[in-house]
């Protein structure tokens, strides 16, 4: 019977095959985080020792299409030849074996007599090579190098997907910033100007709030922020709108303190609140807006509700699909789905003359999501 426990002296109890499997998986897990950073000098240098251990090769090299990125092991005098072997392999587009003649090694006593070079492929594009050097080459080493190069290519493809997702998120935030209403900026400054003579202190406070709001909205770092920071920006926005509308606009906030540190997509609430202000005061003498954030087990539930004119549900569906001019609704929905999955899109409850409620569910913890 197999024994899977560790004895008190620290000796592993299991078969040699079990231990070999563990070592393989362990080295792969150590190489993976570096490779998820893409194919760079830094990522190659960090991954190379673990890939060398996976192959049990005396030396290993990683190149891109321009040249050597990392060398690990003995025979560093072969580094200059690595780029030539990469070029020859990439021209062929398949794993190749090279002997001592190909290596052009003139150093007496050098134990590296052969190399296996496999291409690295990302999205059907050749991006580099993985090279294993040894005294001699077996069919097993050729196969192992080819298999590990395929695994490395998979990690690099995941890195490219991560980078593409980040670029998409950044583009969506830039688009959202571009939609921040110029009328809001003009009207806010107009409201501030109206207090300059009658209430200079309030004008000063509003001007500072406006500066903080624009500084936050146009910041250039980070896809995510905390719910506390997002709500603080929303409060600044509402203070400026209340300065403009006076008693016509009333706001109620109800926020559970325990959800304030939760990470949320940057600018996920402000567009929803802006819509609520627009709809809540459209053709109305007064509008009421409520913002609630509650703890719900592993999630935070956020609701933005107005008692305004409401909207045609079909138009809302079109907006969520990105086909309408509703400020940011489709944008926020897409970013929530990208961050947390399709189960976490916006839920909108509305009808003509019945007001609008927008509901967000935010997981308290999600991979890759942090402020």
TrEMBL record:
What do the Gene Ontology cellular component annotations say? membrane
Give UniProt keywords alphabetically.
Answer: Kinase, Transferase
Domain named Signal transduction histidine kinase internal region: which ranges? 171-249
Q: Which residue ranges does the record assign to the Histidine kinase/HSP90-like ATPase domain?
A: 268-364
The entry lists its GO molecular-function terms as:
phosphorelay sensor kinase activity
What name is this protein filed under? Two-component system LytT family sensor kinase
Native species: Nocardioides albertanoniae
Biological classification of the source? Bacteria, Bacillati, Actinomycetota, Actinomycetes, Propionibacteriales
């Amino acid at each position: 019977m197999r024994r899977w426990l560790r004895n008190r002296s620290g000796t592993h109890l299991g078969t040699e095959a079990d231990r070999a499997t563990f070592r393989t998986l362990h080295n792969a897990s150590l190489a993976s985080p570096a490779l998820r950073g893409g194919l760079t000098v830094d990522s190659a240098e960090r991954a190379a020792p673990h890939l060398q251990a996976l192959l049990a090769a005396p030396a290993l090299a990683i190149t891109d299409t321009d040249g050597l990125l990392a060398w690990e092991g003995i025979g560093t005098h072969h580094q200059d030849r690595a780029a030539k072997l990469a070029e020859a392999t990439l021209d062929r587009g398949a794993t190749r074996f090279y002997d001592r003649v190909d290596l052009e090694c003139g150093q007496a006593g050098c134990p590296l007599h052969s190399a296996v070079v496999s291409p690295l492929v990302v999205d059907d594009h050749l991006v580099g090579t993985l090279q294993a050097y040894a005294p001699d080459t077996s069919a097993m080493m050729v196969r192992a190098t080819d298999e590990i190069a395929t695994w490395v290519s998979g990690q690099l493809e995941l890195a490219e997907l991560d980078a593409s997702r980040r670029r998409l998120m950044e583009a969506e935030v830039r688009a959202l910033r571009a939609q921040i209403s110029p009328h809001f900026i003009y009207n806010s400054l107009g409201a501030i100007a109206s207090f300059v003579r009658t209430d200079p202190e309030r004008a000063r406070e509003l001007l500072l709030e406006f500066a903080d709001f624009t500084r936050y909205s146009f910041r250039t770092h980070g896809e995510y922020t905390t719910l506390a920071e997002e709500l603080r920006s929303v409060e600044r926005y509402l203070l400026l709108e209340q300065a403009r509308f006076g008693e016509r606009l009333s706001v109620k906030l109800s926020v559970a303190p325990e959800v304030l540190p939760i990470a949320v997509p940057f600018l996920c609430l402000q567009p929803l609140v802006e819509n609520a202000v627009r709809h809540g005061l459209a053709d109305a003498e007064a509008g009421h807006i409520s913002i609630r954030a509650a703890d719900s087990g592993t999630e935070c539930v956020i609701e933005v509700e107005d008692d305004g004119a409401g909207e045609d549900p079909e138009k809302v569906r079109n907006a969520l699909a990105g086909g309408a001019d509703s400020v940011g609704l489709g944008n926020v929905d897409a970013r929530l789905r990208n961050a947390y999955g399709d189960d976490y899109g916006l839920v909108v409850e509305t009808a003509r003359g019945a007001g609008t409620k927008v509901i967000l569910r935010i997981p308290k913890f999600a991979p890759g999501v942090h402020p």
